[in-house]
Specification:
The chain is an alpha+beta fold. The chain is built from 4 helices and 4 strands; from the N terminus they run ααβαβαββ. The chain has one domain. Strands 1-2 form a two-stranded parallel ribbon. Strands 3-4 form a two-stranded antiparallel sheet. Helix 3 links the parallel strand 1 and strand 2. The radius of gyration is 15 Å and the shape is globular.
Length: 103
């Protein structure tokens, strides 16, 4: 939310602010951050992402768009996780629903 002034202070205000951004533009911001980290002199090349809720969608999409991503751990991402996993075939896909593997 940096382009809109940063985190406003509460989750409710944050959700309102987030709704003003395009999700694909936010994904591109995260991909740019990955590229920045990967090229950083102190990076060993192993980069992963963890996301909750909308961040889970970001984690999934980064796994799709960046094959060399070391790990992606989405929590509460989208309800169509199983379909996503079968369509994109990530290296290792473990989807849990109600604490039961559903793959």
């Amino acid at each position: 939310m940096t382009p809109l002034g940063g985190y406003p202070g509460t989750d409710d205000q944050g959700r309102e602010l987030q709704s003003k951004r395009n999700r694909d533009e936010m994904l591109e911001d995260f991909i740019a951050a990955y590229t920045y980290l990967k090229n950083h002199k102190d990076c060993n090349g192993k980069i992963g992402v963890v996301g909750f809720c909308f961040g889970g969608w970001i984690a999934n999409m980064m796994a799709v768009r960046i094959p060399e991503l070391a790990a992606a751990v989405p929590f509460m991402a989208v309800s169509r996780q199983r379909k996503w996993c079968h369509r994109y075939r990530p290296r290792c896909c473990c989807i849990m629903e109600n604490s039961t593997p559903c793959q």
